[in-house]
């Protein structure tokens, strides 16, 4: 496993991503922060990420890039590939990717990714990559969720014990290796693997935009920059804003 540049473990934080953002430029490349619980964990579009103590996995990674924010459009999708392949290496089966940032199974959402970028459009920049993985959801926790959810405890084979430290190490190792590859080659290196894991391709979808408008069509994969492609009656639509909501059609 490739080693991270820095590793911190906290009992409680408001958010592992916020902690990395507070430390900012003083951090070495590929710095990781993990927490046993978060008081203000967050997901895409400002949603709260439920973070009870000791049950799930909450971590964030700080990565520097020299190519600029404009070159990082497919980063959340590439991280999704890294995460799926790390979990498959632990014996998890029947999982895939939902554009732009969810790992899902037939039972529901298993993990989420939030990538926050800062820096120059064409120059040095950095990414804080937040990841939450459901390891064990209690019935009480499921009642508070606004969507169906899966956990690793139910997805792993019966003879495989769930070890949070092993899971965290596998994900950190996959990110250390994968992010260095992304830095060199970008999303193009991960496009084929994303297509293999894409659970939206061929499915009827509804795209709900922040302004209230809606598109309907069939998922047609992603393009070379990581944008979602939707086959509609009017032709192929390109969706490149993560602020939309993607729902079954």
TrEMBL record:
What's a single GO CC term here?
cytoplasm
Do the record's keywords include Ligase?
yes
- MF annotations from Gene Ontology: biotin--[biotin carboxyl-carrier protein] ligase activity
UniProt KW keywords: Ligase
Matching InterPro entries, A to Z?
aa-tRNA-synth_II/BPL/LPL, Biotin_CoA_COase_ligase, BPL_C, BPL_LPL_catalytic
Annotated BPL/LPL catalytic domain residues: 2-183
Acetylation found in the keyword field: no
Q: Which family does it belong to?
A: Belongs to the biotin--protein ligase family.
| Protein name as catalogued | Biotin-acetyl-carboxylase ligase
Q: Which organism is it from?
A: Lasius niger
């Amino acid at each position: 496993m490739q080693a991270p540049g820095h590793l911190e473990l906290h009992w409680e934080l408001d958010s592992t991503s916020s902690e990395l953002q507070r430390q900012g430029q003083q951090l070495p490349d590929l710095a990781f922060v993990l927490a046993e619980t978060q008081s203000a964990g967050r997901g895409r579009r400002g949603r709260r990420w439920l973070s009870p103590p000791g049950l799930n996995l909450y971590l964030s990674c700080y990565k520097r890039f020299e190519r600029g924010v404009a070159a990082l459009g497919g980063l959340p999708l590439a991280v999704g590939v890294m995460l799926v392949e790390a979990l498959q290496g632990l014996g998890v089966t029947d999982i895939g990717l939902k554009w732009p940032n969810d790992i899902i199974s037939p039972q529901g959402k298993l993990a989420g990714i939030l990538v926050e970028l800062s820096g120059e459009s064409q120059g040095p920049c950095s990414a804080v990559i937040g990841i939450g993985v459901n390891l064990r959801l209690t019935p009480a926790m499921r009642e508070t969720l606004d969507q169906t959810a899966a956990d690793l405890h139910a997805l792993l084979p019966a003879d495989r014990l769930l070890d949070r430290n092993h899971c965290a190490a596998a994900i950190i190792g996959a990110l250390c290796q994968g992010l260095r590859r992304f830095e060199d080659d970008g999303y193009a290196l991960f496009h084929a693997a994303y297509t293999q894991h894409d659970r939206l391709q061929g499915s009827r979808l509804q795209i709900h935009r922040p302004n209230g408008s809606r598109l309907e069509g069939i998922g047609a994969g992603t393009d070379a920059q990581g944008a979602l492609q939707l086959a509609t009656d009017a032709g192929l639509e390109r969706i490149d804003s993560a602020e939309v909501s993607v729902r079954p059609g």
